[in-house]
Design a protein that fits this description.
About 55% of the residues lie in helices and about 5% in strands. About 50% of the residues are buried. The protein is globular, with a radius of gyration of 25 Å. α1 packs parallel to α6, α5 runs antiparallel to α6 and α14 crosses α15. The strands form 2 sheets. It has a 5-stranded mixed sheet with strand order 4-3-5-7-6. Strands 1-2 form a two-stranded antiparallel ribbon. The N and C termini lie far apart (about 90 Å). By secondary structure, it is mainly α. A hairpin with a 2-residue loop joins β1 and β2.
């Protein structure tokens, strides 16, 4: 072997090519996560509370102070415990005499505890922001393990630029945490099952302990565990299958333990009184009573069943529907996902299925996405893509497969599409919640296609107050607001236009776009006889009434 001569005295040896590449990858990863952190922090600071956040924040305070499970039993504790890690620094206390429901609890903690609501909300949101950034590393590592470092960067870029992930990752809600835990649980264990199988059990348990919708992932994840262990081990087929089944049982037991632990952390005595009026378990639902989970969890499932039995209103592409639409979520994802991410995700799915060496990876990316989306499509609440925010995460991982095509033109095209996606994401800053891609008119037109948490979830009350002070000082204001914020806190002195005769409503009429989408009767008549003059955050429309 011919040895390379040593460098001249005083001349540092050039770093190995591989080391330089690793540093470059690390720099890109840092830059993408820094961009995402800035976007989420800016959004978190500027937005007022969305509808669900005060309930979760209030419940987190009860966990910290009273160790009680009585509030918000329809969702397991883990997500709210995560939120509580931020509120632990808030020095906020619940009035010992408080006895209201969970909606009143949220308002009491945020607006009646004597603390700054903006600071409290930011402290509640920060743990979810940190967790969302950590899930970015999971997406990067997941895609890198499947396709290599270049694919990992493509996946992380699409994840970090996803308006839906940024929007919901900056809120003190449960949607991004459960989605991130689900992605982590699907992280393939084909190469090192001894490492990944315990992680799968912990992540699956964390998902189930955050939202009950994650129960649909259990059979999928357990199948993946069996396939992973069977593939990784040597020996006779029957022993490989047997050890795979044993690993799946271990994952299931570990997940169950995580769920129990999340309840015991709140109340080690697990004190619980079921609320009155729980719907009975009948038919297939009666199988839920056999699950080896805490009694409060099973009661929460019954509450969720009650929600599913209700008839909810759906708004899609300008038309209001009574009841759910089976195709609502796929249609909403088409509107809310950047075009570049859709193109790369679809192309990546084709590559995963078409290229033999990548085909095994399809089980870990496409199967969970399809199964979880199919389960979500059976739900009765068409209230937003937040229910399937795992989709852009898995889509980003699937897109990584395109980077494995070793053709110069393909790699240039991938880079160009990522840049187009970046431009679309940056253009919506800081209004990520009402994002729509360019094919559907952008954020300004989202309210014409979708409603609720896709557009207007109560997040712009503070911005409305600022706009009224700056552009319409001293004017009479009428407000129809869908949200959990308190208008007076944001300097909004407004009356309810539906509480007086229409002839008395003159001046500015501010209406949440979710209310506009479902307007009928008196509100529809008020809007029809008014002139639109302004909008706030692509979520609240201002009208002038003469």
């Amino acid at each position: 072997m011919i040895s390379r001569p040593p460098p001249a005295a005083g001349t540092p040896a050039p770093p190995p090519r591989q080391a330089r590449r690793r540093r470059w990858y690390a720099l890109v990863v840092f830059a993408l996560l820094a961009e995402m952190a800035i976007a989420m922090l800016t959004t978190a600071v500027e937005q007022s509370p969305t509808i669900d956040e005060p309930v979760y924040a209030g419940t987190a305070v009860v966990y910290l102070e009273q160790h009680s499970l009585r509030y918000n039993p329809e969702h397991p504790p883990l997500g709210k415990l995560i939120i509580a890690t931020g509120l632990a620094f808030a020095d906020v206390h619940l009035d010992p005499g408080f006895s209201g429901d969970q909606t009143q609890l949220g308002r009491h903690v945020l607006y009646e505890s004597g603390r700054d609501p903006g600071r409290l909300l930011l402290l509640a949101r920060l743990p979810v922001i940190v967790l969302t950034l950590l899930f970015g590393l999971v997406v990067f590592a997941f895609a890198r393990d499947l396709t290599g470092p270049a694919g990992g960067l493509v996946a992380l870029a699409l994840y970090a630029l996803s308006p839906d992930v940024i929007a919901h990752g900056s809120l003190a809600t449960l949607d991004v945490p459960v989605a991130g835990f689900l992605v982590t649980s699907a992280w393939r264990a084909r190469r090192r099952p001894a490492l990944y199988v315990p992680l799968t059990g912990l992540a699956l348990g964390a998902a189930v302990a955050t939202k009950m919708s994650a129960l649909a992932a259990i059979p999928v994840v357990l199948v993946l565990v069996v396939l992973s262990v069977r593939h990784a081990l040597a020996g006779p087929q029957w022993t490989r299958w047997l050890r795979g089944l044993g690993a799946a049982v271990s994952v299931a037991l570990l997940a169950i333990a995580v769920v129990w632990a999340s309840y015991l952390v709140v109340d080690p005595q697990l004190r619980w009184t079921s609320p009155p009026g729980l719907p009975p378990l009948a038919g297939l639902r009666s199988l839920a009573s056999w699950l080896p989970l805490p009694e409060p969890y099973l009661a929460g499932m019954r509450i969720q069943f009650g929600f599913e039995d209700q008839v909810w209103t759906t708004f899609l592409f300008g038309t209001q529907h009574a009841g759910s639409l089976w195709y609502y979520l796929p249609a909403a994802l088409l509107v809310k996902t950047p075009l570049g991410a859709l193109v790369l995700g679809a192309a990546g799915a084709v590559v995963l299925l078409a290229v033999p060496r990548l085909r095994p990876a399809a089980w870990y990316v496409l199967l969970p996405t399809a199964a979880l989306l199919a389960a979500a499509m059976t739900g009765s609440r068409d209230l937003g893509v937040r229910y399937v925010v795992f989709a852009p995460m898995f889509l980003a991982i699937a897109a990584a497969a395109v980077a494995e095509l070793r053709r110069r033109r393909v790699q240039v095209a991938v880079a160009a599409v990522v840049l187009v996606t970046a431009a679309s994401s940056v253009r919506t800053f800081p209004y990520y919640l009402p994002y729509a891609n360019e094919a559907f008119g952008g954020p300004a037109a989202t309210h014409l296609r979708l409603h609720d948490s896709n557009v207007d979830w109560g997040q712009d009350l503070g911005r409305l107050g600022a706009r009224l002070r700056e552009a319409y000082p001293g004017e009479r204001v009428w407000l129809v607001y869908k949200g959990s914020g308190v208008p007076s806190y944001y300097g909004i002195d407004a009356a309810d236009p539906l509480a007086v005769p229409a002839s008395e409503v003159h001046g500015l009429l501010a209406v949440s776009d979710s209310a506009v989408a479902k307007a009928d009767g008196r509100l529809a008549a008020l809007i029809a006889t008014s002139t639109q003059v302004d909008e706030v955050g692509h979520a609240i429309t201002l009208y002038r009434r003469r």
